[in-house]
Amino acid sequence: MDKLQAMTTFVRIVEAQSFSKAAETLALPRSSVTTLLKQLERELGAALLRRSTRTLSLTDAGERYYASCRAILADIARAESELSSDPAAPRGRVRADMPGVLGRALVVPRLREFEQRFPGIDLVLGLSDRPADLIYDGIDCVIRTGELADSTLTGRRVGQLNWITCASPRYLREYGEPASVDVLIHHRVVNYLSNATGRPVDWRFRVHGEPFTLSLPGRFAVNETEAYLQCGLEGLGLIQLSEFVALPYLQSGRLKEVLADARSAPVPVSVVYPDGRNASGATRAFVDWVVEILENSNIGRGQ
Fold it and tell me: N or C end of the chain, less CB within 10 A?
């Protein structure tokens, strides 16, 4: 058994979440992919994947081995890149994940520029409000909002988001404008569901200079930013989202900020990736590029 090929195959199965898709991307028969994994598990003396008719998931041993395989393969890719006749032209595949509204507004419109600058990098871009796990999901780089808790990852802060409370003119005509945080219990709100917990996210404010959170009942709740924004535009209730997302609608008059004097503290925005030893040259190139974009955007200027 070619151990390097088996490790590559295992990583690809995990990333594709499918034996068939992994086989397709590796240009191998599906039976060869299955055989390589079985041989690898037999040699290691441990099951790496839990398999059912519909899903694949990593065992505890599989999670540890997957992280090691990714680090080894990244080291190999980096070594090959450093020996390239043009070391300034990184090659490889990068999987990146980021909130949909940021990706669609800032990154996707610049992909042609990325292609021209880095013709040797294949980019797989995930746009979702769901928080991605870099190891389990096979992600090389993510854009995250909020404070970073995982010390095994490297984070580069690139800006901040200001969260504001707003409503449509239709809502304000029907229900009036809240004069203080205290009266919100008498207003209609649309809640945003956390993709991590499935529960409504607390409403965040700053009252008398101190952070203040509030759980508010609402008839509507959604778990996707654009749908959440649309609920606000339709006048279904007050919404609380980033100024970056709301800005075009504030400027056009389709939304109006309320409780501006009770804005919560800004939320940091960071680009997160494995530590420098594990990050491939292609990943580092993508990170530098996306940091450049974000720092020169409204996010970098604090909106």
Answer: N
238, 258 in Cβ contact below 8 A? Answer: yes
Give the residue extent of every domain in the chain: 1-83, 88-159+269-303, 163-262
For domain 88-159+269-303, give its CATH number from 3.40.190.10, 3.40.30.10, 3.40.50.300, 3.40.50.880: 3.40.190.10
C-alpha distances in angstroms, 175 versus 126, 167, 179, 181? 39, 10, 12, 15
Topology at the third CATH level for domain 163-262: D-Maltodextrin-Binding Protein; domain 2 (3.40.190)
Q: What is the DSSP letter of 156?
A: E
CATH topology of domain 1-83: Arc Repressor Mutant, subunit A (1.10.10)
CB atoms within 10 A of CB 55: 9
Q: Are 254 and 233 spatial neighbours (Cβ–Cβ below 8 Å)?
A: yes
Listed in order, strand segments (DSSP E) in 91-248 are 92-98, 121-127, 141-145, 153-161, 163-167, 190-192, 203-207, 210-214, 220-222, 239-242
DSSP string computed for 84-131? SS-TTS--EEEEEEE-HHHIIIIIGGGHHHHHHH-TTEEEEEEE-SSP
Residues 158 and 293: their CA atoms lie apart, in Å, by 9
Q: Which two tokens stand for residue 34?
A: 């299955």
Give the single-character DSSP code of 199. S
pTM of the model: 0.67
Please report how the helices 30-44 and 19-26 are oriented relative to each other, as an axis angle in degrees rounded to 10: 110
Q: What is the pLDDT of residues 9-31, one digit of tens each?
A: 998 888 888 888 888 878 888 88
Could you tell me if 199 and 222 are in contact, meaning their C-beta atoms sit under 8 angstroms apart? Answer: no
Helix (H, G, I), strand (E, B) or coil at 45: coil
Q: Give the mean pLDDT of 201-221.
A: 93
* pLDDT above 90 coverage of the chain, percent: 46
Sign of CA dihedral 34, 139, 196, 102: negative
